[in-house]
Every structure is written in C-alpha cells, then in structure tokens.
Amino acid sequence: MATPPYTELDVVELLAESGRWPAGTVIEASDAAALIEIADDRGHAIDFVSVPHDALATADADATRAAS
User: Fold this and answer.
1) Cα–Cα 20 to 30 A to 6, which of 14, 16, 29, 40?
2) What are 20-23's contacts with CB under 8 Å, separation 24+?
C-alpha cells in the first residue's frame, strides 16, 4: 500500500468545487482521498468533506483564507 500524498494534519487547498470551502485540514487519508475538516476562526469544526488527492494542493502557510 502506497503512502497517500497528504497525511493527517496537513493544511490543504481544495482545488475542486467542494461547497464554499477554499481550504481545510486533513484528518484522515486513504490511497484515493482525504477527509478534510473545515473549521471556523475559533477552531470549531463546521464541515467535513471527502476530496480526492488530485483535487488538493498544499496550502500556502502565509495565506489567510476565509469561507465566502
């Protein structure tokens, strides 16, 4: 079994349409997809989305993003 390209606690951008969320944190990863937690500015989970790895990119650590 290959190691998924993204692993737990990676902060990622969502490249594919995934609701209104631009970025989130990987909380679980399989070979095909990652479960992404979307949190508010206080760190409270507000949504979870499953996204294929090819629809993710490593988030820019300097970028501040907010849900629209």
Assistant:
1) 40
2) 20/67, 20/68, 21/47, 21/49, 21/67, 22/65, 22/66, 22/67, 22/68, 23/59, 23/65
